[in-house]
Amino acid sequence: MTLTATVRRVVLLVALVGHVAPVWAELPIDVEVATQKGMPLTAPQEWAQLLGEMQLASVRLRGGRLDDRPEVTKVDGVPNLRFKVLALLDRSGDLVLPERRFRLSDRKALGDYFQSLAQNESFGEELGGFGLTKKQFRQVHADLARSVTFSTQGKTSADVLAQLESKFAVPVVRDAVAREALRQAKPLQTQLRDMSAGTALAIALRVEALVLRPEKPTGEPLRMVVERSQPDRDSWPIGWKPEGSPRLVAPKLFEFLTIEIDGYTLAKALEALESRMGVAVIFDERILAAREIHPAAIQVKLPAGKTYLKRVVDRLLSQARLAGELRVDEQGRPFYWITQFGPDSLRAE
């Protein structure tokens, strides 16, 4: 049997299979396979059989052309998500897709590829973080850039979340673990008024080992999820690394002064310095509790000398086994985040 006759026979087989009522839900993917010269004679029939079992909307084999290139395109103008895939069946008998190559033995990997593609609502769109499109990310950011206009001291993270989410356009959902943790939440000591909502929520939820994570599940609306913190899952950060030079973002931190500190606790020393720093000082309450660090009880000293303000603050923090980092909120306002850096409290990105 000639190669042309083989391909024709496979196309006929695929056409006949297409008229059989599918047992499983059909994937909205139309696959066209362009065969290349020199491939094994049995390859078209073997691939047609395999692809015909993958619940695809349609499968078609044809002879290859010189300008054929593997590609995936989203079909525009249709009410539901649909894709067209052009694959090459090369001379080695492999199925070549954009940036992927599959052998006949890679059945599961190929099935996973099609399943993932069928659910990829953001295919072809520029992404903006957390797997969202740039448009979706801007929607979330617009909510989380709102200012906190009320005092948070003495309120629980549940109170803060409830008051802020009432102003959001993107809904917030809580999983079962988060609901229970919020029900038992402790009052916050930190004042987060005038910070942006995203950074304030990340700080407040962290006290209960919770995080906020934007997501867009397939076929469902964009939302923000409150859930237990997990090291392998991205979540909304506690502020961001400044884009500009720290000296420009918070110039007062780099002003020189002659100073001596004695007879002060860490809390009192930072309270006295905060107005000169020009940025809010925010303690990581979760780390303080877990490490049993009490700034109001830790005595600090600094011998008389001339240095810049940030170095003064960092030297004081080191006496309490703490460290600080300059960050900015969603509106670009700087603050000084004080914690112990490690796996459970990472540097800003």
Account of the 3D structure:
There is one protein chain. This protein has three domains: 3-118, no CATH class; 134-228, 3-Layer(bab) Sandwich (Phage tail protein beta-alpha-beta fold); 246-339, Phage tail protein beta-alpha-beta fold. It is 31% helix and 24% strand. The protein is built from eleven helices and 14 strands.
Features:
11 helices; alpha/beta; elongated; 31% helix; 349 residues; Phage tail protein beta-alpha-beta fold; disordered N terminus; 3-stranded mixed sheet
Could you give a short account of the major beta sheet? 6 strands, mixed
Mean pLDDT: 90
Residue share in helices?
Answer: 25-40%
Assembly state: single chain
Task: Name the shape in a single word.
Answer: elongated
DSSP strand (E) fraction? Answer: 15-25%
The helix/strand class is alpha/beta
Distance between the termini: 61 Å
